[in-house]
Amino acid sequence: MHSTLSRRDLLRLALGLPLLALARPGHAEETVLQVGDQLFGNRSVVEVSGQADNLPYRIDWKQFPAAQPLLEALNAGALDVGMMGDLSFFTVFAAGAPLRAIGAYRADPRTQAILVRSDSPIQGVPDLKGKRVAGTRAGWGQFLILATLKQAGIDPSEVEIVLLPPPEARSALAAGAIDAWAVWEPYVSTEILERGARVVADGRGLSPTITLVAAHVDAIAAKHAALQDFLGRLSAGRAWVRAHPAEYARYYAGLSKIPEAVVQRSTEQQQVGFVALDDAVVAELQRAADLTVEFGILRDRVDVASTIDRSFSAV
């Protein structure tokens, strides 16, 4: 007899995730959190800080190059929880994804930047007119480009915006196929230290630079205690990293194969810390979300407060 695999099961297999095992009478099932991560950024924090010790559940980490594929997996239920930029999350939430934000952490807005090559004639934002500028679709990259142009009084039609994921954009910048690239850490430090890239604009005054911890509603219902514990460990890990940047850089470099000098610069620039999803932060995120409608990234306004599950205590 043949069984038909669901879309969720097919995606689990594609990502290398196990299908749910059948319960055995008399045996308690171990709680497993399927966690989506980007470039080992959170796995490294939890492990190096000792927060992975004595877990009352098991974490299966899955790595992604950017938010979009991570959110596709989370939306399909192949992940329980993942971390992504605020605007990427709002985009999939607006499309009906069964996800809620359960936690948040903020980085210095200078860690979002528009970069040009060392030999580029571009010296400032006005020089972007008539140029090809790349960024991620419906995320920090596209938003930073449009917010930067708005601040400078430049009509978006005066710039060719190319929507590319980070690996493709990096190659395109190196080859001269694009003139500038809007991206975030650790890509920023990698380009500056390895290729001499220059920053022509950053996220100060333009972006909240908040990463959301988002969970599937099914995971919230079934694994609430594990998710709350995970948030606490991730918060404690982030605090440890701020106090031990050099130790963290050595560990992350070994895990990610990113040069240690790049990791240390990126870590010191970011200064990441958890923030409460309180009314002030929600209002700040709402202003950014409203701008995405103005920019045409989102079609309809997102009520940011409705995207948050407030049953998780602040960490």
Which regions have little confidence, pLDDT < 50, spanning 5+ residues?
1-5, 17-27
Number of domains: 2
| Number of helices in the DSSP assignment | 12
Q: What name does CATH use for the topology of the largest domain? A: D-Maltodextrin-Binding Protein, domain 2
CATH homologous group name of the largest domain? Periplasmic binding protein-like II
Strand fraction equals: 15-25%
The strands making up the biggest β-sheet line up spatially as: 2-1-3-10-4-11
Gyration radius from CA atoms, angstroms: 20 Å
Distance between the termini: 49 Å
List the secondary-structure elements in sequence, H or E.
HEHEHEHEEEHEHEHEEHHHHEH
**Number of E-type strands:** 11
- Please describe the biggest sheet, giving its number of strands, its sense, and whether it closes into a barrel: 6 strands, mixed
Overall 3D shape: globular
InterPro entries: ABC_SsuA_sub-bd, Solute-binding_3/MltF_N, SsuA/THI5
GO cellular component, one term: periplasmic space
Function: Part of a binding-protein-dependent transport system for aliphatic sulfonates. Putative binding protein.
Signal peptide: 1-28
What's this, in brief?
The protein is an alpha/beta fold. It is built from twelve helices and eleven strands. Helix 5 (140-152) links the parallel strand 6 (132-135) and strand 7.
